[in-house]
Design brief:
Blueprint lengths: L1 H13 L18 H4 L3 H12 L13 H4 L3 E2 L12 H7 L22 H14 L8 H26 L15 H4 L6 H15 L10 H4 L5 H16 L27 H20 L18 H14 L6 E9 L1 H7 L14 E2 L30 E3 L13 E3 L7 H6 L1 E2 L38 E2 L9 E3 L2 E3 L4 E6 H16 L3 H13 L5 H8 L9 H15 L5 H8 L3 H4 L3 E4 L6 H4 L2 E5 L14 H6 L10
Antiparallel strand pairs: 1-3, 2-10, 4-5, 6-7, 8-9, 11-12
């Protein structure tokens, strides 16, 4: 009977999910909810069930934001793309729909995680954990705090995807009448406030660090709770939801406005305070920006190689000092197979995930300013000029090799994050600086002889491939790292953004941008623009610094999927609609290879800032309203 009630309640809340999904909320070998809370051991299983809805952010088949960001591209739906479902590819090529939405997190369908079921599961835990007799009060409070933060996070995931959502503060009882079950959407600012409230309630009972790392890494801590609160309040303050007149018509059927159409600077002030608190807690717990520590058995490497490793390993080094929250369940074996180019050490990779060359324009020059602004960089001829690589660049490019000017004199993140013809490829099997591995991707080489295992732009997102990944001829063994869901650098850049929007350019805002830039080997913002930019005063205005912060964020989080959401909260259709371009990769000489091809032109409109609700849900629950233009 209990299971039937749980299934019924779930149907009433989300209107359409398959009933079998609800069986997942009861741990294995526990037939009813009541029995799940009869003792500590079964209650702990239920606690971990609450964690089980965390999305697999490192999965090629589950995380559509990798490709949806337009930073990575893969062949069209229907082509051979091992490990990637057609649904994910269809979404990334603008095939979203309202009949059967792709990556449907509202219902947990078609590649989506059932977030409303996740929230219900958390509520059931919170309603019943007080019944467990054989648990110490300190531990009970910690578990309650963890689940409150998970509940906050699940609300946040839905907020950034759908905007206004029905909050799941408590579960609707089975005895509720039909009208009570017909929930409506809650305004964005109320959802954001509820997320912040849950985090605040939880923080006093959470540890600052995980002491029992063998068994508890990945569980919620106070810095994680504060970071989620910061993310939610930054989203609430961003242009998508703060003063967005385009959403004036997004109202419930009773006329209740769901998005704030009048700009409110105080939202940025609240966001800045939340970012400050999250950073302070993270720093106190020992988190700092990652810098590569050379293992004792690694040969000497150049300062340039080490700088590239500072950047690359911030993603691929498990539980490094920058990773505030890692998803231990989300490993990256298949992701690396997609992103690793075939080379002279290992060739058994899929290699189909291509870095969009147009998106790679976002990287700065070596002078730390945009390529179109640099006084000393030949922007006009970036695609047409061929150059010979000088020996001084041997740590990142093959000496005396012909390449495009586009690849020359770029910042370290360009070389750390990308693999391309003539680029160095530092891996554990070739660690000697005098014996560097270089990628050879001219057509007909060992790395480029089959379009079924080759980047169709000529670039690969090397950033996502661990340097410890190994192979031998036809073998390939990925060093599967966990996915870093929250990094300290994100808090630094969000804090700088919130400070600029709330009080204008300031030394504090520069400080946190410059911390991220320093790790990338760049001078500070003010110094770099003054010395190298055609727009030297850019950092001194709100609009100019906003542009700089957004570009810095796009660079720092390129290929991670994070920018999928950043582009939307900033309302940057120009970024969402960047064409997918690349070189003419089936050519055999530099003169013919280095010709730009247009591969795909996205066609996003402002309706794509938010995901659609499945049309069937609107039929079942007439109080729900659809997102604009869907």
């Amino acid at each position: 009977m209990k299971i039937i009630k749980i299934m019924l309640l779930g149907m009433l809340i989300i209107c359409s999910s398959a009933c079998t999904k609800f069986l997942d909320i009861v741990p294995d070998n526990v037939p009813t909810v009541d029995q799940a809370f009869q003792m500590r051991a079964t209650a702990k299983k239920y606690l971990f069930t609450c964690y089980s809805y965390l999305p697999s952010l490192g999965s090629v088949s589950d995380n559509y934001t990798f490709l949806g960001s337009r930073e990575i591209a893969s062949p069209y739906p229907g082509s051979q793309a091992p490990g990637v479902s057609d649904g994910i590819l269809q979404l990334c090529y603008d095939y979203q729909n309202i009949v059967k939405p792709i990556a449907n997190y509202w219902d947990g369908d078609n590649g989506g995680v059932a977030m409303f079921i996740a929230m219900r599961t958390c509520n059931i835990f919170l309603e019943n954990i007080g019944k467990v007799p054989d648990i110490q009060e300190v531990e009970r409070k910690r578990w309650i705090a963890e689940v409150k933060v998970l509940k906050a996070y699940y609300h946040f995931l839905m907020l950034r995807m759908y905007g206004p959502i029905p909050m799941m503060k408590t579960n609707i009882p089975v005895s509720a009448d039909v009208e009570a079950v017909k929930v409506k959407r809650d305004p964005v600012e109320e959802v954001a406030a509820y997320i912040a409230q849950l985090a605040d309630e939880a923080i006093p009972d959470l540890p600052s660090v995980i002491n029992n790392q063998r068994e508890e890494l990945g569980r919620i801590t106070a810095p994680i709770a504060l970071a989620i609160k910061a993310y939610a309040l930054v989203l609430n303050a961003s242009p998508l939801f703060n003063g967005n007149a385009d959403y004036a018509g997004l109202q419930n059927k009773d006329g209740q406005a769901l998005v704030n159409t009048t700009f409110d600077k105080s939202k940025w002030q609240e966001a800045a305070l939340a970012c400050h608190d999250a950073i302070a807690a993270a720093n106190s717990a020992g988190f700092q920006l990652y810098y590569f520590q050379k293992p004792f058995d690694l040969n000497n490497i150049s300062d340039t190689t080490k700088k590239c490793m500072d950047i690359r390993c911030a993603i691929t080094e498990d539980w490094n000092q920058e990773c505030i929250w890692g998803f231990a369940h989300s490993t990256t074996t298949e992701l690396q197979r997609e992103c690793a180019p075939r080379n002279d050490v290992y060739s058994y990779t899929y290699s189909l995930w291509a870095a969009n060359m147009n998106a790679c324009e976002i990287f700065y020059t070596a002078n730390g300013v945009p390529i179109e602004e640099d006084l000393h960089w030949d922007y006009a001829n970036r695609y047409t000029k061929l150059v010979t690589v000088p020996a001084t660049m041997r740590s990142i490019l093959k000496p005396n090799y012909t390449t495009s000017y586009f690849n020359m004199n770029r910042e370290y993140r360009f070389y750390a994050d990308l693999a391309f013809d003539g680029s160095s490829y530092f891996i554990k099997q070739r660690p000697n600086e005098d014996n560097l591995l270089y990628i050879n991707t001219m057509w007909g080489s060992s790395s480029a002889n089959s379009l079924s295992r080759y980047s169709f732009t000529g670039y690969w997102p090397k950033k996502l491939v661990s340097w410890k990944t190994s192979g031998d001829g036809g073998s390939y063994t990925a060093d599967a790292y966990l996915w870093p869901a929250i990094r300290l650098s994100a808090l630094y850049l969000m804090y700088a953004e919130a400070l600029n929007e709330s009080e204008g350019p300031s030394a504090r805002a520069y400080q946190y941008i410059d911390e991220v830039r320093r790790r990338a080997g760049l001078d500070g913002v003010v110094q770099s623009w003054a010395a190298h930019s055609r727009n030297a005063a850019k950092p001194s205005t709100v609009e100019g610094l906003r542009s700089i912060i957004q570009q810095e964020t796009m660079i720092e989080f390129i290929f991670e999927g994070e920018n999928y959401w950043n582009m939307r909260r900033w309302k940057r259709l120009d970024l969402m609609n960047r064409p997918v371009t690349g070189w003419d990769v089936t050519q055999r000489t530099p003169a013919t290879f280095y010709k730009v091809r247009s591969i795909y032109q996205p066609r996003n409109t402002y309706k794509d800032f938010l995901a659609p609700i499945r049309q069937y849900n609107l039929y079942v629950n007439p109080n729900l309203v659809q997102n604009p233009l869907w």
